[in-house]
Amino acid sequence: MVKRYGVTEGKILEQPEKDASILLYINPDPAECKNLVDKHAIDEHTLQSSLDPNELGRLEFEPSHCALIIKRPKRYTARDNFFFRVESIGLFLFSDTIIIIISEDLQLFDGRLFTNIAGLRQMILKIIYRSVIHFEEHLKVINACSEELEQGINTSVSNKQLLSMFTLEKSLVFYLDAISSNGRVIDKIKANAAKIKLSTIEMEFLDDLAIENSQCLGMAQNYSQVLSGLMDARASLISNNLNVMMKNLNAIVIAIAVPTFFTGVGGMSEFSNMLNLHHWKFGYPVFVLAMACIGLATFLIIKLTEKYWNS
Question: Checking phi first, is residue 167 left (phi over 0); if not, alpha (psi -120 to 50) or beta?
Fold first, then answer.
């Protein structure tokens, strides 16, 4: 599907085909891809890169246009189950036209950011800026999700919550790659500003964009390090809790084994004879009480010995 826009009084509005300077292709079909390759001389590999979420960002120059591949966060849905994905956007700048290729329908030009557009080059920079802002917003959501999962893990450690934490950590790895990739594209735009014909105002905006992306990268790195450290600490805590549980279980097993030994050697009848308690109503309760006392004493001796060796 293709949508056509133009810049009118600083605003991006839909226009008829003859007046359109912005062509937005949404998940183009084979016929539209062929038209882009044949009519606009767009490289087929670069075209496919615009739709490939695993493609890294880059800037390339062709005889008739320059091509940019940038990264942005993919829209998150409940079905993603804490996995935040990234997607690619293809920007193809011609002398008086820009072609944008995206994999899903987005409100690409909404908001105040696109209310005062001076030209197509400034619009490209603002699209990149919008991507950086979206990364920052998603990073805040990831941080909120990790805090919520952390609280849940503190009360009840379940495989589902731990797997969700691992998924968030995996998402941050993809985000770090994408944000770093955008940073390299921004640096390359800076290096080729004269070739792209950026104005002084656009260069100032590009400097601000580079700073914003650098801050976004730092935020992602901090969140990734915190989450990675949290997962390591959580794994150590679970291992320690398991060791404590096994020690207590061993103490209980030994505490039960000792009275079981005496029970196997003698039994209740021998115990009753020793105490001259020939009636089972008296012998059985006394026998059970004696075995319980032996088991409790054994458990306390084990715990006191453990405490002594650990001190």
Answer: alpha
